[in-house]
Amino acid sequence: MEITDKVGAKNPFAQRLLAERHSWPLTVALHLVPGALVVAAYFLIAHPLTQAIHYPAFLAWAIALLVVLVPAELGLLLWLGRQRNGRWSLRGVVHYLDKPLSRRRLVPIVVLLFLQFFVVSLALVPFDNLVYQTFFTWLPFEGAGGSVTAYLDGYPHSVMVIALAVCIPATGLALPIIEELYFRGFLMPRLPHQGRLTPLLSSALFSLYHLWAPWPLISRVIFMLPGAWMVYKKKDIRLSVGMHAGNTFFLQTIGTLALLFNVMP
To answer: 90: number of CA atoms within 13 Å, CB side?
Structure first.
């Protein structure tokens, strides 16, 4: 049985992507290919550009993510929606959009997910640094390391502030929302295995997708898993969107303000 039955997408590739379940090879490809494309875009487009204008690698990664994720993830979802529905729509493509949770139930859960993401991700930074120093110092990425500041070191203060500030709407808000729609709303309900392990598999594959920052792989699974699990159980994509995009927007905004006012080195 395929989700396309109701509308009947005629494109064979769209039919395969809209199937009720994906095969394991297709699942792995749909998770990891975007990450590989981000790395390629960084080396071929974004890094040469930011070097030419003397801006840090943080901005290069933001450009690479935008260049890849907007067409490869959001664009793919919209194209599939048009194939399925005959119009630009995510219905039948992205699951968990029906908002089954009332605002009264939604808000406390999102707040708890936000707090656990914030606390756990920060608490695991020393572990991430250890993993990087032990296994990943060979990575050829400029400024790779355990924190965002590693990508900013060595640049004038004004350049660092601008690089962070201009990325807030993209890497702080828009891209995490796109990732949740793609990974949690589109891919997770189509994983070959559906059961208790589904949120864990989704979180692990999502963590592996971050080929440009592999050292927090274990940590990322830990702090992303509660959001994936709640979406899977409650069938409401707003839970992981609130947790993920809420934290990235908050952390990047606070980090930018702290840098602007010299609260951080």
So the answer is: 16
For 60-93, give the DSSP string: HHHHHHHHHHIIIIIIHHHHHHHHHHSSS--TTT
Distance CA 239, CA 74 (A): 19
Domain locations in the chain?
3-83+111-260
Q: What residues contact residue 95 under an 8 Å CB cut-off, 6+ apart?
A: 185, 186, 188, 189, 235, 237
- The whole model's pTM is what? 0.93
How do residues 208-252 score in pLDDT, each as one tens digit?
A: 999 999 999 999 999 999 999 999 999 999 999 999 999 999 999
